[in-house]
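[Meeting: bench + compute handoff]

Bench side (C.D.) handed over the final construct sequence. Compute side (W.E.) agreed to return the predicted structure before the next meeting so the bench team could plan truncations. Sequence as handed over:
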Amino acid sequence: MLDYISLPAPTIVPRADAVFITVTNVDDLGAWLVARGGKIHVTPAYDGLELWTLVTRTPKGRDGTSVEVRVSVPVPAREIVLANILAAVVSR
């Protein structure tokens, strides 16, 4: 997927159940949201940080399957975030 969709993915960890990607800032998470859609889950703040995770999927392959992708970024608590990103948050 990353060969034809230019998305930030500095850290990629493939697992049997999903691909885990860590990005460096919330704007990168927004790029993934715009490109792939999905919902964002936010963990409770600890030491002033929350973990924001976008849950999305790869496009379907030729065999009709896709893989779950979880894109995460640490975000300072009470950070100002773009409205389209906030609209995708399902838990906080």
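W.E. noted at the follow-up: The chain has a mean pLDDT of 91. C.D. will use this when planning the next construct.
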